[in-house]
Structures are given as structure tokens and as C-alpha cells.
Amino acid sequence: MASFQMDADWLRFDPAPSKPRYTLPPGAVDAHCHVFGPGEVFPYASERKYTPCDASKDQLFALRDFLGFERNVIVQATCHGADNRALVDALKAAGDRARGIATVRDTVSDDELAALHEAGVRGVRFNFVRRLVDPKPDAYYRAIIDRIAPLGWQVVVYFEAADLEERWDFFTSLPTTVVVDHMGRPDVTKPVDGLEFSRFIRLLTEHDNIWSKVSCPERLSKSGPPGYDDVIPFARTLVERFPDRVLWGTDWPHPNMKGHMPDDGLLVDFIPRIVPTADLQLQMLVHNPMRLYWPECG
Ligand code: 0GY
Q: Which fold has domain 32-297?
């Protein structure tokens, strides 16, 4: 049985977050969260760039219920590589209350894809953040897209804002729905109407198959907790311009946070600060994720 020691500088998730003051609408979806291990049952991948603390499905479901979410979209994290067993285990335990985004290799078999679909997987994630993975040539990702597009799956992409220009042609050529993690990681010290974020806005303006998660103020903010004030103009701009293509998630258990560990209750309280009306909140938290991940319920 494998035994894992979390990284020495790893910050554990908050075991006792505050109760949000903001009441989520019934049916709200936490559209970006992870499960880690437990490593003794679901070993971390040998190619991983970090070793986290375990964060189990039961802990995720307890947080879901405590914060007032109805459903989760669980995203495969790089510490598990293309071994989706922990994800599938969580999806099966959640019943119809979770969907998954997997990581697969270009050698994945049809049977493996069918089993992932059966478990609730509805997309793959391509991660281009170099501190997390060694990116591969475009042809590698295209081979995967050829395999997953017929299943109606989406592609989730994670990248740094500075890399968008280089990846533009690739992202804009994708035939599936594309969901960008964490607003394309803007540098929030730059102006919201500056070159860099304008490029991201243009990406969504010109390509209506591209969506954005307006998540992770804790990761993007330089002004820091509890307000994460510097992130608000970026998230709010996306919500107001693309109300039918934004999603929100906690990012629990917040991998690779270095400065502080967020209080998940305060993260939920951040939602009305970036989504000004009840109608828009309902759209982002319920209607949009349901359309994307549970279309059969629509
Ligand atoms: C996130 C962010 C991070 C990690 C991963 O898959 C991962 O390891 O996505 C990060 O370190 O920025 O969305 O969980």
C-alpha cells in the first residue's frame, strides 16, 4: 500500500469554514472542486508536481451540504495524472449529484471512455500551467478531442493569461464547448480594460462555444482576504457580458495555495459581490451548469 507525505509547505483546507451569510439558490452547483486520494486507496500519480493532503469525497460532500450546494462538478487534478479512479469513485458515491471532468491520454480506449461517461464524466481537462504539468504538442490534444467530441463532451482548459496569445489558434479551433478555468488567470494588478484581459474578453466575444469559470478570487487576488477586492472588476465584467456562459466553483480543497487558505463560507459570500442580481445569480449557479452538465434535467 502506497504511503504519501504531503509537501512540507502544503496548506490544508479549512476544516471548519464559516456558514455563508449569502443563501445560495436551490439547486446551486459548485462547478469546480476536486477530490485528492486518499492516497492509500487512490495513489497519487508518479508524474505529479505536488503531493497534497488527502481530501476525500465524504469531506467534499459534507462541504457541499454545509455551504448549501446541491451538486458538484469534480475536476481531475494533476496530482492524480490520468488515473481517474478517485474521481470515478466520488462520482459513483454522489449518484446523480455530481459530474466529472477527467484527464485522459491519447491512448484511452473506447471502453474506458464509455465507463467514464457511465460514471458521470462529461469532459476532459487540458492543463497548460507549467508548474503543474509538462504541456504536450497540440497534436496530442487533438487526438483526444477526436475521441471525446463524439460523446458530446466538453474541454476544460487551464492556462496563464500570458499564454493566451500563443494558444489562441488552438483554443479557437476546438469543436466542442470549451470552459476556461479561473477567468484565464488574469493578472489583477493590470487594468481590467488593458491589453491582457481585453484579449480574454475577445476570446469569449468572438467564440460563443467558450465559457469561463469566474472562480478563484483567493488564487488571483493580490489585495487578499477577506475581500479579494481587486478580483471583483474582472469577474463582474465577465458575468455582465456573458451571463449565459459563466460558472462558479469553490476550487476546494484549494491546491497549491501558499499565502493563506480561504474560508469557503467567505468565498460563497463573494458571489453576490460579482453577480449583482438574483436573476444573474440563479443563471450562473443553477441554469448554466445544469444546461452544461445535466441537460437531461432541463
Ligand atoms: C485548480 C488550480 C490548481 C491546481 C490544479 O490540477 C491541478 O493540480 O488545477 C493550481 O495549482 O493553480 O484549479 O485546482
A: TIM Barrel (3.20.20)
